[in-house]
Amino acid sequence: MARATNSVKRNRRRNKILKMAKGYWGRRSKLYKSAKETVEKGLQYAYRDRKQKKRYFRQLWITRISAMCRENGITYSRFMNGLNRAGITINRKALSNMAIEDPAAFKNLIEKAKESLNG
Fold it and tell me: Cα dist. 56→42, 50, 61, 93, 109 in Å?
């Protein structure tokens, strides 16, 4: 009886990895072993960075809000505390966009936050 080789499955598996490695430089895109190592590492980075992307955007929004707050004489933490006390619930992404696109409205929010802190 002839030996079963499972060659179709093996070739598909190899071709899938080599297809994912397209665009890599040199043997990383040509040789299976090098391509497999590089693709696996790339997938690990992609998984990690999908999580980090959320952190980085939140950090950016907070930096923008903080800069606008300091221009108007209040710290970020006091501003957020004032908004919470005033019962204003708006997320940081929207606050960041407001600080950039509509500074007058953002200034009104700062005034309301200051009032709620004092009162």
Answer: 20, 10, 9, 12, 25
Cα(14)–Cα(21) distance, integer angstroms: 11
CA distance 76 to 12: 55
Q: Which amino acid, one-letter code, is at 11?
A: N
User: CA angle, corner 66, sides to 71 and 68, nearest 5?
Assistant: 35
- Cβ atoms within 10 Å, residue 66: 18
pLDDT digits (tens, 9 = 90+) for 43-74: 999 999 999 999 999 999 999 999 999 999 99
Residues of the domain holding 67: 8-118
Query: What CATH number did the domain enclosing 87 receive?
Result: 1.10.1900.20
17 membership: H or E segment, kind and range: helix 7-20
The number of folded domains in the chain is: 1
Q: Is 64 in a helix, a strand, or coil?
A: helix
- The dihedral of CA 19, 25, 31, 32: what is its sign? negative
Residue 74 lies in a domain: yes
pLDDT (average), residues 16-45 = 96
